[in-house]
From TrEMBL:
<comment type="similarity">
    <text>Belongs to the universal stress protein A family.</text>
</comment>
<dbReference type="InterPro" id="IPR006016">
    <property type="entry name" value="UspA"/>
</dbReference>
<feature type="domain" description="UspA">
    <location>
        <begin position="151"/>
        <end position="292"/>
    </location>
</feature>
<feature type="domain" description="UspA">
    <location>
        <begin position="5"/>
        <end position="144"/>
    </location>
</feature>
<dbReference type="InterPro" id="IPR006015">
    <property type="entry name" value="Universal_stress_UspA"/>
</dbReference>
<dbReference type="Pfam" id="PF00582">
    <property type="entry name" value="Usp"/>
</dbReference>
<dbReference type="InterPro" id="IPR014729">
    <property type="entry name" value="Rossmann-like_a/b/a_fold"/>
</dbReference>
<protein>
    <submittedName>
        <fullName>Nucleotide-binding universal stress UspA family protein</fullName>
    </submittedName>
</protein>
Amino acid sequence: MKTRYKTILVAADGSEESHFALKRSIELAKTNESRLVITHVVDYRNYSRMQLYSPYVLPAAEEKGQVILDECKEIAEKSGVSSVSISMQQGMPKSKIPKEIAAEFAADLIVSGASGAGTFEKFIVGSVSGGIARHASCDVLIVRDNPERKYQTIMIPVDGSDTGLDAFKKGIAMAKKSGASVVIAHAMHTPMVSSADHYRDHILETFKENGEKLINEYSRMAKEEGMEDDKLVLSLQAGSPKLILPKETAHRHHVDLIIVGASGLSSTERFFLGSVSEGIARRAACDVLIIRNHQ
């Protein structure tokens, strides 16, 4: 699979989170020698009712958006990005960016600041960054931290799936390029094992043995790709992956980037529950890169 991004699309809305996303996308664009596309989407839903009272509201919003784009473009160019484009459009950002703008510019990575939403809204609808992660057909990086330095510790959850393997290969390539350590993590999800089950201990031991074999195999592959032994950490824990990995495991190992493969669910399941990758992205306190590319 390819490990270099050709076109990076970053969403800019003037917020602190989007500024963090811009800084990280600039770093990635320089590292990958990528084209950087900066987009601002005017959410017409916020201005449609106001338009009844003033015909100047939407044009003013577009003017402000243009100022944001011009400032971001200047920052990127002064930072050394050789190819920078800007795009301003109208629509719902959480669907417009991943479905239309990413396709228009053939983006293979979308970078978005982690945007907030109320607990209920986030569960039912999701934030803008969550919507982008859900609808995108390319990789998505959700930025939460101020990127003052390159990533130091990258966690890669593994489960034996094809998308998990894609995430693993991308993570190892990024770690080698940046000199980061890698935490290879597997969460043993055992919801069907009853505490009263006569065979519970044997079943849990089997889960543990299989989990150890899995992470050891990924460790072997990492070393074959050139990772040094002292840069690898293996983590095996019991619990729900979407709960334990972004909170307990990431905190324990001081992780500043989680790279996870996009996992599939039916549309109904995704609406109410969310996939493992979405659950990790929603709960993590650090940056999360969701991998979808299979090239």
